[in-house]
């Protein structure tokens, strides 16, 4: 029950209140659930070949710890056909503001997180499989090394040209291409994460206080999204 509440937009404190337990009790259960979800369920499923695919989509989501001056990156990969989460990793991002840098947020660990996710993707991707991403230069440097032989396809959203605005036929054709989303599944997952995890919502009081707790929350959500039974 706690797992379902925690993965449906309910905060930890409110989940504890609904279940009639202390907040500290619910917090301890969350740590246990995260361990079960990742090490004893998801990793075992990956090692046993439970997720084998030829098409993976990868992206990053940005959030923060305590305040917007302390940004965090969430790197994750999904199976394009089913939306199963292959791996998800949290890492600090370097702050762009002076206030953030004064708090010590000067190092960027998102590349290491990307490499960690790709190490898991390598176990699931068929030889010559496709990894679709956006146009970030970092992905072009990391993916060929982490997953040799993979077909990396970076996509940049196309815009309707000025000439097409005066030509109805050309306008329709270009709009159709512009509206096609080759990264639909990973973008859809970003939206689901924002909606289903209270601390990732755009406007919320339930902000992340510790990086590790966000990672635990995401590991539990991975089990929930992939349909694992945790006992």
Give a structural overview:
The protein has 231 residues and is of the alpha/beta class. The chain has two domains: 84 residues, no CATH class; 131 residues, Nucleotidyltransferase, domain 5 (2-Layer Sandwich), CATH 3.30.420. It has ten helices and five strands, in the order H-H-H-E-E-E-H-H-E-H-E-H-H-H-H. The chain has a five-stranded mixed beta sheet with strand order 3-2-1-4-5, with helices on both faces. Strand 2 and strand 3 form a beta hairpin. The longest helix has 25 residues. The chain starts with a helix and ends in a 5-residue tail after the last helix. About 2% of the residues have low confidence.
Give a quick summary of the entry.
It contains 10 helices and 5 strands; from the N terminus they run H-H-H-E-E-E-H-H-E-H-E-H-H-H-H. By secondary structure, it is of the alpha/beta class.
Highlighted features:
globular, 231 residues, 5 strands, 2 domains, Nucleotidyltransferase, domain 5, five-stranded mixed sheet, alpha/beta
């Amino acid at each position: 029950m706690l797992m379902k509440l925690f993965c449906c937009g309910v905060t930890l404190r409110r989940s504890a209140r609904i279940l009639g337990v202390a907040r500290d009790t619910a917090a301890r259960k969350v740590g246990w659930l995260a361990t079960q979800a990742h090490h004893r369920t998801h990793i075992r499923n990956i090692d046993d070949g439970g997720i084998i695919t030829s098409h993976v989509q990868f992206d990053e989501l940005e959030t923060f710890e305590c305040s917007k001056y302390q940004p965090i990156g969430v790197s994750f990969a999904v199976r394009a056909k089913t939306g199963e989460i292959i791996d998800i990793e949290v890492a600090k991002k370097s702050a762009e503001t002076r206030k953030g840098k004064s708090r010590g947020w000067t190092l960027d660990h998102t590349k290491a997180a990307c490499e960690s996710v790709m190490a898991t993707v390598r176990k699931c991707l068929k030889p010559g499989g496709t990894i679709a991403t956006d146009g970030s230069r970092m992905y072009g440097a990391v993916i060929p090394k982490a997953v040799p032989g993979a077909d990396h396809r970076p996509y940049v959203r196309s815009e309707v040209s000025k000439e097409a605005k005066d030509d109805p036929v050309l306008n329709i054709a270009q709009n159709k291409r512009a509206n096609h989303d080759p990264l639909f599944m990973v973008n859809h997952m970003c939206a689901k994460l924002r909606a289903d995890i209270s601390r990732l919502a755009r406007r919320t009081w339930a902000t992340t206080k510790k990086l590790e707790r966000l990672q635990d929350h995401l590991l539990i959500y991975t089990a929930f999204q992939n349909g694992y039974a945790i006992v």
